[in-house]
Amino acid sequence: MSKPSTIAIDGSAASGKSTLGALLAQRLGYLYFDTGVMYRAVTWAVLDRRLDPADVEAVSRLAETLTIEVKSNGPDDGRLYTVLADGQDITWPIRSPQVETFVSLVSSYPRVRAALTAQQRRIAAAGSIVMVGRDIGTVVLPEADLKVFMHASAEERARRRCREIAAQGKAANYDEILAAMRERDKQDQEKPISPMIPAADAVIIETDHLSLEAVLDRLEHLIREV
Ligand code: DC
């Protein structure tokens, strides 16, 4: 059997899907594409242009006209890729707490999802891609050759986030991070359109007690089986 050409990886915040998706793409020589950055880019642009994130019409219009580019090789400052919105480098600003606060709301709007889904399908059409998000296997690429859904408990994901923050030399509050994690899960799961659920034919990987290497091995094993 030939290698799967389109691989969809979905999962919750801090489930490890981005790190694993990037490593897998590197091993396969595929393009890695993290769709979360597109929702973050629209949210960043909404705030930058001083629009009201609750104004569905204005936010939708912006999502339909904003040019988002994701380039694989950025400057050597630890980034996996460079994100541009209408030509402006927003790779780091899209990770700000302000963007975190509003990204769930912005990504709940149907026209925002339609605009970004269409772009994501165009990007994936060339194949040899690992596309990561929340609704890739269910909505964006229902015909993907391999669908994986990464799952980890909120407690484990909060511990991972704490370690990441501590590694940057900053103070991390586990209880606050856990509460925020649960809130975001709730919003992502209860979204009326594209809620975060595994596709019926997705392989579910529980990562709570697995190392990065162990999950990567499982993924590579799955790829050989497809
Ligand atoms: O994976 P992330 O944390 O960068 O995603 C940011 C937000 O974007 C998250 O709240 C859910 C949303 N998102 C989405 O609705 N659909 C996707 N395919 C990817 C992300």
Describe this structure in words.
By secondary structure, this protein is an alpha/beta fold. It has helices at 17-28, 36-48, 56-65, 97-106, 110-124, 136-140, 154-167, 174-190, 212-225; strands at residues 6-11, 31-34, 68-71, 82-85, 88-89, 129-133, 146-151, 203-206. The chain has one domain (6-221): Rossmann fold (3-Layer(aba) Sandwich), CATH 3.40.50.300. The protein has nine helices and eight strands. Strand 4 (82-85) and strand 5 (88-89) form a beta hairpin. Helix 1 (17-28) crosses helix 9. The radius of gyration is 17 Å and the shape is globular. The site of 2'-deoxycytidine-5'-monophosphate has 13 residues, from helix 2, helix 4 and helix 8.
Q: What is the element layout, followed by pairings?
A:
Blueprint: E1 6-11, H1 17-28, E2 31-34, H2 36-48, H3 56-65, E3 68-71, E4 82-85, E5 88-89, H4 97-106, H5 110-124, E6 129-133, H6 136-140, E7 146-151, H7 154-167, H8 174-190, E8 203-206, H9 212-225
Parallel strand pairs: 1-6, 1-7, 2-6, 7-8
Antiparallel strand pairs: 3-4, 4-5
The structure holds 2'-deoxycytidine-5'-monophosphate.
